[in-house]
Every structure is written in structure tokens, then in C-alpha cells.
Amino acid sequence: MKIAFIYDVIYPYVKGGVEKRNYELAKELTKRGHEVHIFGMNYWRGKDIIKKEGIWYHGVCKPQKLYKESNGKRSIKEPIHFSLKLFKPLIKEKFDIIDCSNIPYFPALTTRLVTLLKGEKMYITWHEVWGNYWFEYLGWKGFFGYTIEFLTQFLTKNNIAVSERTKKRLLFKEKCTLITNGVNIFDIENSKRAKKFFDVLFVGRLVNHKNVDLLISAVGEKYSLGIIGDGPERINLEKQCLGRKNIHFLGSLEKQEEVYGYMKNTKVLAIPSTREGFGIVAIEANATGTPIVTVEGKDNAIVDLISSYKNGIVCKLDQEELKKALELSFKKHSSMRKYSKIYAKRFSWNHLGTELEKVYGYE
After folding, report:
1. 190-345: what fold?
2. DSSP per residue over 166-215, as a string?
3. I need a labelling partner for 249 at 20 to 30 A (CA). Which of 92, 175, 256, 321 fits?
4. Where are the domains of the chain?
5. Are strands 247-251 and 49-52 parallel, antiparallel or unpaired?
6. Could you tell me the pTM of the whole model?
């Protein structure tokens, strides 16, 4: 089969859950003999079309800023620009399947237009459904986000959700297929332990809803904290940590194996985020034997991955509660380590690749 994945950013040039999923599934499907293409922004600054690891990459435009410098929120201009530039390169190709991520919505409209014109089969993979959160995020302007998210659900009957929580929020949830995100167990098991040890580790984009500022406050000066990732909140967070020798900003690491190495050499991975569509990083940490501490939240799908005191702890979004949860995870680290590894094995990309082939109708 000839398959295309559509998303504005591409792994490993940008490291996030959606682009990581596209990359891992593309690798898995390529191993099985499928021809896989990924359409996104041209981060490699070379030819618009390149081939790496057997995967075809299409850079449809120059990289645009994902977040506004003024408030750290997702730019609206970027996905509109990407969507307009996507039409021409996408319509030039002929695909059996085009799988477009629901966010940031505008590319799904372009993809639908192309598939209608060419009679191709379109899937939308849903990572999150914001619903009324749009109004909290953008105020009255959230009406436009709410509306386009609502209308996107009518673009195709072929929908995939990455978590049960996301699936339940869709209008046509009965016809939606659940295919979770996964982890590369082999790479994790064979990665080398990092030399530097941290009591607590955070991995993710440095944006408001990740609540890294709360984590820094909860850690205090008693425990060491390693922060892997980058984003618009980094400057503010670094200001918060002035004079603190126990807080280390490691930036966005080039190799994923380095991230696994740090996960292997920490007591707990803390993810105090209120918004997560799935949370690949949580399963990756579990695969290294590291338990999770996360926070309650109706939009945090990581909560659904946690069995209390077995592979992690869920607490309230509060500095003292977070501190207590971290300290409790230190005490129970040894007992949670074994279950965490066992739990993670059910999320292998190999298994998910088989499930995706079935959904696409490949026999």
C-alpha cells in the first residue's frame, strides 16, 4: 500500500507525541513492505523531497513559528500557511491511504479536498478533543477553534483515536477505532544508562499546560530535577530557577536513546500536565522501569495509563500534593519498577502496526 501521514511538524526535527507516532508507524509499515510518505514543513533545509530510513519526506514549506512569542500559545497563521502549501504537493501524488492528524485542523480540510478530487481514502487520527477548553484557551475567539474542531468530525467516516478518553469525546465514537500510541521496547532496553542521575525527571515541551513551574516549586532545593525539552516557557522557567544548582535544563536532546538513558537513571518521571492526548513519554519511562507521577485532569489521558502505586501515582494539581506524590514514589520505587516494565510491553509499535494495517484494510 502507498500511505501518507499528514502533520505540520516532523520528527526528529521537532520532538512531540504526534510526530513521534507518525515516525514510528511509518518505520513499522515500511518494514512490512508499504511505501510510506510523511508530509510536513521542510526542517532539513535541502531538497523538498528526501528519503531516509526507507520513508519519503515531503517538505511543503519553510518552517514557521509554532507558538506566539507574546503569549506562548499555538499560532493560527502557521497551520493556515502549511495547509495552503500542502495542496499542490499532495495532489501530485496518488495514495491508497492518507492519514491526517486532527490537530491543527486546517490541514485536514486540505486533505479532504484532495481526497475528494482524487477519490482517495482519508483517515483522521484524533490525538485530542478540546471541546469547551477552546474558550478557556482563547476566550471568545475560542468559538472559531470549537467550530472547526466540531466540523472536522464530519470530514470522514474513517476515524482513529489514540486514547479511550479522546474516543469518548467524539460525536461518532461508536464508529471510531482505538489505536494507542506505542514505544520501541528494543531501543529502550538497549539504551545506555545516563551518567548523570536525577531524583526527578521531566520530558516534554515547555508550555504553560505542562505546569513545569509547579514541578520546580514542588521539588524545592532538596531534590535534583532534570528538564528535557524546549519551548516558549523556557526563559520564564530559567528565571524561576536562578541560583538553584539542583535544577538542570538539558534542552531538546538530539538522540532519543539519550532520553531513555536519563529515564533509566532517575527515580520518577513527573508529568504535571493538565492536557495530554495520550502521553507516549509515560509509557517510555515505564518501559525503563521508571514510575510516573502525574496530576488529575479531565483532559489528561495519562491518568488512564496509571494503576495507582503499581506503575505510578496520580495527585491533585497542587504544589504540596505534588511534593507528597514525588516523595511517596521514591519510597515505592522498587516495588513499582517491575510492574512498570511489564505494563509497557503491551504498547509495542510492532503490535500497533498490525492493528493499523487491519484498519486500513490491508490483508
Report:
1. Rossmann fold (3.40.50)
2. HHHTSTTGGGPEE----B-HHHHHHSPPPSS-EEEEEES---GGG-HHHH
3. 321
4. 2-182+348-360, 190-345
5. unpaired
6. 0.81
